[in-house]
Amino acid sequence: MFDNSVMRFLISVIDDTAGLASDDEMAAIDAFNDRLQADGHWVFACGLTDPSSATVIDNRAGAGKVTDGPLIDTPEHVSGFWIITAADRDEALALATEGSKACNRKVEVRALH
Fold first, then answer.
1. 46-84 burial code (b ≥16 CB/10 A, e <16)
2. Which residues contact 21 (CB under 8 A, 6 or more apart)?
3. What is the pLDDT of residue 2?
4. What pLDDT does residue 20 have?
5. Whether the predicted pLDDT of 83 surpasses 70
6. Domains in the chain, please, with CATH?
7. How far is it, in rounded angstroms, from Cα 31 to Cα 24?
8. Which of its termini does the chain have fewer beta carbons within 10 Å around, N or C?
9. pLDDT of residue 4
């Protein structure tokens, strides 16, 4: 169960390549993940496959529409994410700034509700 005294945030990693992180980037990401866990901010993190492997399903009103490929075809895409806890938005932004440096990519921060 989640502690209601802290907020949860999604930090999405924004990438513009289909390649994986370099060895140095992975080492920095691992160190950042370890710090998140040690400091009690860690909830979950994961990398995502290339957008070309996506499938969009629209079954509103029983439409049953299945489309291979990403929802939006753009050079930038979400390549991974962290779900963290933080006392407030400022703390989440500070952690996201560290995450951006660790993975060497832009990130987007959004509160979960």
1. eeeeebeeeeeeeeeeeeeeeeeebeeeeeebebbbbeb
2. 29, 103, 104
3. 56
4. 82
5. yes
6. 7-111 (3.30.70.1060)
7. 11
8. N
9. 65
